[in-house]
């Protein structure tokens, strides 16, 4: 298979970085984590590098070393702001890069999620996306108090398995509702026709009348169709169930291949999931997450830095492959992934304030040297990702 | 230095309404960010206290069909305010968020996030809904009975405040040397078990710059007044004339004192429009023209249909007031807007008497009962009316809307603001950086200490 398209490169922002001790690095600004200036600096660096998008991690609970509940650690970053609002705050300060906040869809209202992302698309002029996240945590359920949770149980507990399956099914319904609401106004619904005294063409604003197993939503949205029509929907997935959610609902799936063999098997599994759910339209963009520690040219190696940070507290544990090395090493991994059928990579900087500048200054030039960076200027995130633009609303009647 | 009372000013962009004239040649987008940026930056240039954004959760419908005449469609409140924070420095950012169709944890975290991201400029206008039509857009549905809405709203506000208070001011050490990020491993811990919410855990957002973002409320019933007087920092009031405004303000201040609060810490702001002219006659002529634009045939019909709760399309607007009774039992004929009249029969009776007395057609009645656009006159006259209203205790300021978006506020800022500043009734520079400082409200800690 030929790989004529250069890969999409994005970056995943998480507090001070993905290493739990990242905040202790000399460059880190842990006291600024809750300021707009900190996030603007990071996103501007990513934009300067020419990256396609940043995603912004979020959760309805504090960070924790445990999977289902909180912890009481005091030596790691705890606390986070709402990612949609960070993205909205940053949007007017940058002009080209896509913005994908993580949004938990389990405990939130689909109507609110839909209009929030539509509005991010307005304030960013067509650069919005969303990474939908299913919550299976006990602490998050207790924060909202609306649904029973089996509690802090073993992950193979049947009650927990059932809870997880249900949460993923429900998430697919949420995304369906969010997408229908985006389409509920046709692009030209606002007519401002003084002759007929109509602001709207009521025939171009549609109820969605969604009735599912978990909830129903009537619509239409209060927010007109966003600039991209359908902002980009992404999901992080590690297993068959989540692959199916992505295949049903998303444009982009972030996956976590550990090595070459695994990366091939994931592509197969995702394509299987697409067939299983009878996916229509574009195939999923499969994007590999890599957690990176880049060598400092003429200074400390990425591997030494990782070892040093590991020794400070809790060693890094990651679902995504950890690549510590030179820009050339990371570029080699990206090369291999592209050859295996990946549409791109999303880099998780081990230390945001160190690795993001190195991505900009070392890795991107290396990728450009290898012809692995796309240079076509696109104004929308869909355009940057090669997704079809100008999609009509599903409710639009074809022009005769 | 002047000792005049400082007028509090807020700027308002309406989203779904019959007041904004979309037919006006200067009317711009109601949704593009450039519109919001323009109004917010104009308000900041005029040294306004805050930008105020309403919320919409359902499009209006008439007899089951989306109503197509008025301005409709609006962005989500909080993302717009967060984006405005990027293009302003001092302006407060107050958003309406419904306490019925939101959960306290999410509300608290979004508003506190906005407070962090704006450097302490966030406020929350608390509203409720009991409308099943709106509820059909939400998982929860139209579950809330009318009488329960304040119960839930009060507990929502109280719970949100518990969450805001769950982090100590100095909870974050962020000491790289010692490796202590949090001083307390249980920072953000909360537990709320009330009649509406049964929640516990830890809040994700550290103490925000204002500690407690500003709470704004509306409410005119005795229950609503108590709720506002006991919990609000500012009240969005419907009373824009001096006598009624003064009576309302006196009542709220008395109630606030009864709740152990300093009445100075509850600011009252009615909404107001304005029309400027080169002479009073010129302004009045413009105001008449604006009202005619606002009161189109379809607006008039729908306004009356909302009260009658039935189809009035067969009635000539230039004929007499319909002689049929309202139908309170039928399903809502006009959906998606708040019903502001207490009693349909009483309202219709009053209107009939008025029409009979003055010999009014339906259209004439609409003009008679429509709210006047507020302050009308030359810039000097408007500055004088507004200043007098505030100095004499009608309110602490106003929430200003304009019938043309986005440029309508420019005229006020260019022509009236300098006159208010000359009089010493409006700041020429911002005093502080937070919304609380703009409004002259104490930090929550200070308020707590004073109450002890």
UniProtKB/TrEMBL annotation, chain A:
Pfam families: Bac_luciferase
Gene3D superfamilies cross-referenced by the UniProt entry: Luciferase-like domain
Boundaries of every Luciferase-like domain copy: 28-296
Cross-referenced InterPro entries: Diverse_substr_monoxygenases, Luciferase-like_dom, Luciferase-like_sf, NTA_MOA
SUPFAM superfamilies, per database record: Bacterial luciferase-like
Keywords: Flavoprotein, FMN, Monooxygenase, Oxidoreductase
Entry superkingdom: Bacteria
Family: Belongs to the NtaA/SnaA/DszA monooxygenase family.
Alphabetical list of PANTHER family matching this protein: ALKANESULFONATE MONOOXYGENASE-RELATED, C2H2 FINGER DOMAIN TRANSCRIPTION FACTOR (EUROFUNG)-RELATED
Protein name from the UniProt record: Alkanesulfonate monooxygenase SsuD/methylene tetrahydromethanopterin reductase-like flavin-dependent oxidoreductase (Luciferase family)
Organism for this UniProt entry: Microbacterium trichothecenolyticum
Organism phylogeny: Bacteria, Bacillati, Actinomycetota, Actinomycetes, Micrococcales
TrEMBL record, chain B:
GO terms for MF: monooxygenase activity
Pfam families referenced in this protein's UniProt entry, alphabetically: Bac_luciferase
Keywords, in A-Z order: Flavoprotein, FMN, Monooxygenase, Oxidoreductase
Residue intervals of the Luciferase-like domain: 27-396
Residue runs in coiled coils: none
CDD domains in UniProt: Nitrilotriacetate_monoxgenase (cd01095)
Record-linked PANTHER family: ALKANESULFONATE MONOOXYGENASE-RELATED (PTHR30011), C2H2 FINGER DOMAIN TRANSCRIPTION FACTOR (EUROFUNG)-RELATED (PTHR30011:SF16)
Family of the protein in this entry: Belongs to the NtaA/SnaA/DszA monooxygenase family.
Name used for this protein in its record: FMN-dependent oxidoreductase (Nitrilotriacetate monooxygenase family)
Native organism: Microbacterium trichothecenolyticum (Aureobacterium trichothecenolyticum)
């Amino acid at each position: 298979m030929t790989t004529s398209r250069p890969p999409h490169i994005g970056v995943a922002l998480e507090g001070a970085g993905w290493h739990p001790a990242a905040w202790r690095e000399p460059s880190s600004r842990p006291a600024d984590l809750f300021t707009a200036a900190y996030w603007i600096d990071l996103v501007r660096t990513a934009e300067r590098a020419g990256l396609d998008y940043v995603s912004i991690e979020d959760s309805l609970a504090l960070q924790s070393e445990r999977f289902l509940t909180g912890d009481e650690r005091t030596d790691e970053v705890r606390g986070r702001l709402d990612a949609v609002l960070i993205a909205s705050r940053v949007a007017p300060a940058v002009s080209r890069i896509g913005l994908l906040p993580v949004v938990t869809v389990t405990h939130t209202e689909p109507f609110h999620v839909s209009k929030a992302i539509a509005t991010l698309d307005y304030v960013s002029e067509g650069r919005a996306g969303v990474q939908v996240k299913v919550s299976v945590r006990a602490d998050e359920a207790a924060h909202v108090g609306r649904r029973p949770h089996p509690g802090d149980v073993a992950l193979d507990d049947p009650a927990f398995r059932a809870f997880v399956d249900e949460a993923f099914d429900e998430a697919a319904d949420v995304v369906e509702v969010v997408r229908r609401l985006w389409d509920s106004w046709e692009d030209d619904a606002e007519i401002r026709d003084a002759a007929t005294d109509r602001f709207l063409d009521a025939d171009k604003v549609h109820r969605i009348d969604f009735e599912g197993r978990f909830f129903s939503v009537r619509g239409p949205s209060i927010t007109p169709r966003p600039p991209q029509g359908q902002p980009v929907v992404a999901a992080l997935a590690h297993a068959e169930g989540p692959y199916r959610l992505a295949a049903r609902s998303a444009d982009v799936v972030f996956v976590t291949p550990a090595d070459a063999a695994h990366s091939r098997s994931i592509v197969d599994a995702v394509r299987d999931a697409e067939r299983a759910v009878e996916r229509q339209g574009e195939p999923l963009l499969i994007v590999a997450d890599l957690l990176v520690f880049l060598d400092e040219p003429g200074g400390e190696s990425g591997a030494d830095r990782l070892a040093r940070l590991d020794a400070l507290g809790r060693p890094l544990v990651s679902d995504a492959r950890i690549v510590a090395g030179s820009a050339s090493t990371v570029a080699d991994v990206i090369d291999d992934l592209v050859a295996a059928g990946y549409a791109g990579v999303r880099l998780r900087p081990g230390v945001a304030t160190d690795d993001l500048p190195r991505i900009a200054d070392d890795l991107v030039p290396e990728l450009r040297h290898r012809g692995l960076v796309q240079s076509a200027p696109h104004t929308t995130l869909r355009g940057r990702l090669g997704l079809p633009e100008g999609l009509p609303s599903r409710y639009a009647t074809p022009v005769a | 230095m002047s000792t005049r009372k400082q007028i509090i000013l807020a700027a308002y962009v309406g989203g779904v309404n019959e007041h904004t004239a979309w037919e006006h040649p200067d009317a711009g987008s109601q949704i593009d960010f450039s519109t919001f940026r323009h109004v917010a930056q104009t308000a900041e240039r005029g040294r306004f206290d805050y930008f105020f954004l309403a919320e919409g959760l359902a499009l209006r419908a008439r007899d089951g069909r989306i109503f197509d005449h008025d301005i409709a469609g609006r962005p989500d409140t909080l993302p717009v305010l967060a984006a405005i924070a990027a293009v302003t420095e001092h302006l407060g950012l107050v958003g309406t968020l419904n306490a019925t169709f939101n959960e306290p944890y999410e509300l608290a975290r979004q508003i506190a996030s906005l407070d962090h991201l704006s450097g302490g400029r966030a406020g929350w206008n608390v509203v409720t809904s009991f409308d099943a039509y709106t509820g059909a857009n939400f998982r929860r549905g139209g579950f809330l009975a009318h009488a329960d809405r304040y119960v839930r709203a009060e507990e929502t506000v109280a719970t949100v405040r518990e969450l805001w208070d769950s982090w100590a001011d100095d909870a974050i050490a962020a000491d790289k040397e010692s490796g202590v990020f949090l001083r307390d491993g249980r920072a953000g811990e909360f537990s709320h078990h009330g009649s509406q919410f049964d929640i516990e855990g830890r809040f994700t957002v550290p103490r925000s710059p204002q500690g407690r973002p500003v709470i704004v409320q509306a409410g005119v019933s005795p229950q609503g007044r108590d709720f506002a007087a006991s919990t609000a920092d500012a009240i969005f009031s419907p009373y824009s004339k001096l006598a009624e405004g003064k009576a309302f303000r006196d009542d709220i201040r008395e109630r606030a004192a009864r709740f152990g609060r300093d009445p100075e810490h509850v600011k009252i702001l009615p909404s107001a429009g304005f029309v400027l002219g080169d002479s009073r006659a010129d302004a009045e002529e413009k105001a008449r023209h604006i009202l005619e634009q606002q009161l189109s045939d379809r607006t008039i019909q729908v306004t009356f249909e909302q009260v009658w709760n039935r189809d009035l399309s067969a009635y000539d607007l230039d004929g007499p007031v319909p002689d049929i009774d309202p139908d309170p039992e039928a399903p809502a004929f006009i959906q998606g807007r708040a019903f502001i009249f207490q009693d349909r029969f009483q309202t219709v009776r009053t209107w009939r008497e008025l029409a009979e007395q003055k010999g009014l057609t339906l259209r004439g009645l609409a003009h008679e009962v429509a709210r006047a656009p507020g302050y009308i006159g030359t810039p000097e006259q408007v500055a004088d009316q507004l200043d007098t209203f505030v100095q004499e205790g009608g309110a602490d300021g106003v929430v200003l809307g304009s019938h043309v978006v986005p440029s309508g506020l420019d005229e006020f800022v260019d022509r009236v603001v300098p006159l208010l500043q000359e009089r010493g009734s409006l700041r020429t520079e911002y005093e502080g950086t937070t919304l609380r400082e703009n409004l002259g409200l104490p930090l929550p800690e200070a308020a707590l200490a004073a109450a002890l």
